[in-house]
Design goal:
The chain is mainly alpha-helical. Helix content is 65%, strand content 0%. Helix 1 packs antiparallel against helix 8 and helix 7 packs antiparallel against helix 8 (141-166). The model has no long low-confidence stretch (mean pLDDT 85).
Length: 174
């Protein structure tokens, strides 16, 4: 699924005007953040990711912030680099700002230790993103919204596969 998400980001970036490609391509690093955070905390590489693998080299080269003192800052370091890669004048695209606001609210909700139902929050984010996507025709924000919706789909699929492996007798979730 990680490779498929990398491929999806590359495909979307190829459709974007050249001034937007760097910021879209940077989204492929998001799927690597948990791995990079683990490595930054001194964790060992998973067996499927040996030291010589091209995927590991690509992730580490793309994100030198893995060497930061505070691994919990990787997310904000990613966001700062993404904003740096956005083309000049991106502020005039209001839907991009709305997208950033929605994702920020979602992340703040997940930071709350009182959160009880994460899946409900994901569904709420998905619903809001779908509405925003419908408004984003011919707007650069559409690429980022589409990738966020794809990531939510992959996350849900991964969770369902894991649930089915661990609890094979449970019924499918609607």
């Amino acid at each position: 699924m990680r490779a498929h998400l990398h491929e999806r980001v590359a495909a979307i970036a190829a459709w974007m005007p050249p001034t937007w490609r760097a910021s879209v391509e940077w989204c492929s690093v998001l799927v690597d953040l948990p791995l990079l955070q683990c490595l930054a905390r001194g964790g060992t590489s998973p067996r499927w990711l040996d030291d010589g693998s091209p995927e590991r080299r690509r992730a580490l080269a793309a994100f030198p912030a893995v060497r930061v003192a505070d691994p919990d800052r990787l997310g904000s370091a990613w966001r700062e680099e993404w904003q740096r890669r956005l083309p000049g004048g991106h502020e005039r695209f209001a839907l991009l700002g709305e997208f950033v606001r929605l994702v920020g609210l979602h992340l703040a909700t997940f930071a709350d230790p009182q959160l009880i139902d994460g899946w409900a929050e994901r569904r709420r984010l998905q619903s809001r993103l779908v509405r925003l996507f419908r408004r984003a025709t011919l707007d650069p924000a559409a690429a980022f919204i589409f990738l966020a919706l794809s990531a939510l789909d992959f996350e849900r699929l991964r969770g369902e596969i894991l649930r089915r492996v661990v609890f094979p007798r449970l019924p499918l979730v609607a």
